[in-house]
Amino acid sequence: xxxxxxxxxxxxxxxxxxxxxxxxxxxxxxxxxxxxxxxxxxxxxxxxxxxxxxxxxxxxxxxxxxxxxxxxxxxxxxxxxxxxxxxxxxxxxxxxxxxxxxxxxxxxxxxxxxxxxxxxxxxxxxxxxxxxxxxxxxxxxxxxxxxxxxxxxxxxxxxxxxxxxxxxxxxxxxxxxxxxxxxxxxxxxxxxxxxxxxxxxxxxxxxxxxxxxxxxxxxxxxxxxxxxxxxxxxxxxxxxxxxxxxxxxxxxxxxxxxxxxxxxxxxxxxxxxxxxxxxxxxxxxxxxxxxxxxxxxxxxxxxxxxxxxxxxxxxxxxxxxxxxxxxxxxxxxxxxxxxxxxxxxxxxxxxxxxxxxxxxxxxxxxxxxxxxxxxxxxxxxxxxxxxxxxxxxxxxxxxxxxxxxx
Length: 406
Known about the structure:
Blueprint: H1 4-46, E1 55-59, E2 61-77, E3 80-84, E4 89-94, E5 101-102, E6 107-111, H2 114-156, H3 162-202, E7 204-206, E8 211-216, E9 223-224, E10 232-237, E11 242-250, E12 262-267, E13 270-282, E14 287-289, E15 292-302, E16 313-330, H4 331-335, E17 353-362, E18 365-379, E19 383-387, E20 396-401
Antiparallel strand pairs: 1-20, 2-11, 2-16, 3-10, 4-6, 4-9, 5-8, 6-7, 8-10, 11-15, 12-13, 12-16, 13-15, 14-15, 16-19, 17-18, 18-19
């Protein structure tokens, strides 16, 4: 059994040890705080001008700026021909399909020629009958002429009366008229026969140009009707090695582009490929879609590898203007305006001018901003050219006020 005096001695020793541990931790914390404050003081003494800036800044740089105009368009063949039927009938056979390469004069499809051939035979029979009538009429005219000549000789010898002469002359004139009418009927029937024979030729539908069949809208057994609104049976793209893009250029950018300008294009099917072309035409006719006015731009480009297909959507880029090795500044700097009313921008500036706010600082006063008016050139959407007298490269310009942000 432990004596009371011994127990009391152990408790005193434990209490003393605990107080000594607490005192040691307090001394260590004080030393750490002193070291931190001392380090901060030494850094402040070594960097007397270091302050936390309230502004985000950018610098005036020297570089290139290219003013680009972008537009969306659709790829089309350079020449696209729609082929319809010139005769009516039932489609007997179709000799080409989608993507078939054809030459001018190749047969694309054939209509049943039986009706057309029957019409040819009917016209030939009618023509032969009319030619027989013409021969008879011409024979009657010759006989009437001979009779007239005989009556004239007799009349000259006073052996015939004037009435007989007049009757002979009238018979001759009537026979001549009948022969002329029969001759006209023969000519009309020959024309009708020629039309019937042409209709037989039209039962075959020929390719009007060299190219590729991009659309086929007919199948064997279908009936087609030739009229002023005849349906399109085939669409032939003349040469897919050259294509064109019809792009819609916004009215605000139409003054920046002109024929002959180089153009680059990208399509979704080949996102890593860049296709190059030339602007051929800016059309005067405009398109107005929901209040947005655009003008069609026709762009020619090569398709030697055959990657481009009709109907693809393309994004085209025109390098409208460029400036090389010029002073430039971020567009954010031109949009910046200080939150304090004491900072006032210059007034009465031309429309092509802007304002930059330069960041200045001194040893004995906080940083301030100073407004400077600048002349602006072209922009690429991120940077803008500075023309004329402007801040030197490396000058800091304010692009944002950190403290003013909500």
